[in-house]
Amino acid sequence: MSLPPMIAALRKHKAGVVLIALQIALTLAIVCNAVFIIYARIQNVQRRTGLDETNLFLVTQQWVGAPSGDSPADLEKLDTMLREDLNALGSMPGVESVTPVNSVPLFPSSWNGSESLKPGTDMRAGNARTTFYFGDEQLLKTFGLHLVAGRNFTAADVAHKALRDSSEPNVIIVTKPLADKLFPQGDALGKAIYLDGSNTPSTIVGEVERLQVPSVGSWASSFVWNSTIAPLRMNSNFSRYAVRTKPGRLEAVMRAVPSKLYAVNAMRVLDDDSVKSFKDIRAEAYRADIGMAVLMGVICLILLAVTAAGIVGLTSFWVGQRHRQIGVRRALGARKIDILHYFQMENLMIAGGGALVGIVLAVALNRVLMSKFEMQSMPAYYVLAGLAVVVALGQIAVFVPARRASNVPPVVATRSV
Amino acid sequence: MLKMTHLSKVYRTEVVETYALRDFNIDVKEGEFVAVTGPSGSGKTTFLTIAGLLETFTGGTYHLDNLDVSNLDDNARSKIRNEKIGFIFQAFNLIPDLNVFDNVEVPLRYRGMKAPERKERIMGALERVGLASRAKHYPAELSGGQQQRVAIARALAGSPRLLLADEPTGNLDTQMARGVMELLEEIHRDGATIVMVTHDPELAARAQRNVHVIDGQVVDLAEDPRFHTAYAAAAGQVRG
């Protein structure tokens, strides 16, 4: 078998060849980028937050008729109510620890800001963006965080304040990535930094290995590991508690929480969504990503199927059109396998040509997506894998019609019609 | 060269058996030019397809170039078709997507011949049929007679032991038919063995020997009254 006569023959069928090659090129370009996006989403979904997720749940509740917290007396009252809840939750059988929190990773509520090495810096000009988590000395234990440097908060470090109080904490714990960003020399411990453009310094007393920010949106991707923990109980007419249970006790404790809290104070609202396991929080956070990945996966499969169907259709058409010609080739000495190889080689040339155009389109599409949607640069092996897939797909799709062609008997050459 | 003994070809359906060839006997010697004649439906084309290993047969024996080809598999039959037999078809059967050179090259490629030898043989064959200057033309750019000459060149290029021609002038006008026939005669004079199927008595008369087929059997014309009726009818059609 030789390519020049085959190319010459293909040139006689330009329209079909160009259309199928273009379809293969577009399939390659779209599938490569789609798979790259899917993989990026899966990587996002699978990344560890840094928490002990298995045994963690979150309680969000609102008091009815609670004081506003504007006066010092009201603030104290709110804090007392909050501590009563903490004590009640902490005393439940099966509870390992509990802490008041404003949010947890992957939860659709976050408190974001910036940190500077200098006082009074405009927030947008800070040295690093961050998410703030507020909690007490039990937060590290409750979250299951791994302290890699410095110390945990003590009860004395923990303050309480109203939601609108802009005063900053004296001490903070930061994640290691944030510490390294602020102090690349690795000497963040004991250093003072300024939160949200404040003039009051906060001293870094500890570093935790890993703590993801709440948001899973692409806008937060630049500081996804930059978390700051402040020793604060935030007093308001609502409160949120993170509870870590002993292994295997999560569901039982979650079921018992509403009655326990109502026993402390019945004047509160706890709805079906108020007690939520971290597993559910994770599922909700990534529902859109998983849905998008599945949708793109299905679209890729449909696209590949349509392309395969196109190849089958065109090859079947050509086999029908060249029925007599195949018989003549057989009469002149072609074996069945020669006919099979002829169509496979022909498909390889078309798919190969389409794939080469597809590589260019795939890279161009990636560049466009990078410029418009903050997508990463697609590694070359995605394109090479895509090339292998479309070429293999072409060979699989062409096999059945090519085999049918190889079964055309040589006697066809002698038939007049 | 070609010897069929008691050969039969039966087409079977669920309800009926049709004998295309029955107790068919023929012996073509090397260097002979034999015309196989007979009316339409007599089985002469079936004979040709079996002789060319394009079809299998049901019973009897067939020796081609002293080789019993009765039980060969498909690949072996393809190899013999490619190396020992040259075909000339009524409808020329050139591949329209390939130019003259590439058309003549087709059987040589299946033989796995090296490019320089292929080129030498192709140009030699085209020169012999007087079409070397048309090597880059496509079939659609040639007359019917030229197309058949290309087909003959394709059949000759592989230096086959046997040339099988199926109504080689059937699609040509008288002048072109004469040219093609003269070419076949010239090829025969050079030593080729040719078996030509035709229902044209004029054409058959130019062969060395005629074999007459009626109802799937080779018949002796002097003794078989069926021939006289069928032959007269066929001759009448040709003249009409």
Low-confidence stretches of chain B: none
Strand share of the residues of chain A? Answer: 15-25%
* Proportion in β-strands of chain B: 15-25%
The rounded Rg of chain B comes to 18 Å
- The main sheet of chain B orders its strands as 6-7-8-3-9-10
Protein name (chain B): ABC transporter ATP-binding protein
Organism (chain B): Dyella flagellata
Keywords (chain B): ATP-binding, Nucleotide-binding, Transport
GO molecular function (chain B): ATP binding
Give your account of this protein's structure:
The complex is a heterodimer of chains A (417) and B (240). Chain A contains eleven helices and 13 strands. Chain A has helices at 3-11, 14-46, 72-90, 139-143, 176-182, 250-264, 278-285, 287-321, 323-331, 336-373, 380-406; strands spanning 56-63, 95-100, 112-116, 128-135, 147-150, 159-162, 171-175, 192-195, 201-208, 227-235, 238-245, 268-269, 275-277. In chain A, strand 8 (192-195) and strand 9 form a beta hairpin. With 240 residues, chain B is of the alpha/beta class. In chain B, a hairpin with a 4-residue loop joins strand 1 (2-12) and strand 2 (17-28). Helix content of chain B is 39%, strand content 25%. Chain B starts with a strand and ends with a helix. Chain B has helices spanning 44-51, 74-84, 100-110, 115-128, 144-157, 174-189, 201-205, 225-239, and strands at 2-12, 17-28, 33-37, 59-64, 67-68, 85-88, 162-166, 193-197, 209-214, 217-219. In chain B, the strands form two sheets. In chain B, strands 6-7-8-3-9-10 form a six-stranded mixed beta sheet, sandwiched between helices. A four-stranded antiparallel beta sheet of chain B has the order 2-1-4-5, covered by helices on one side.
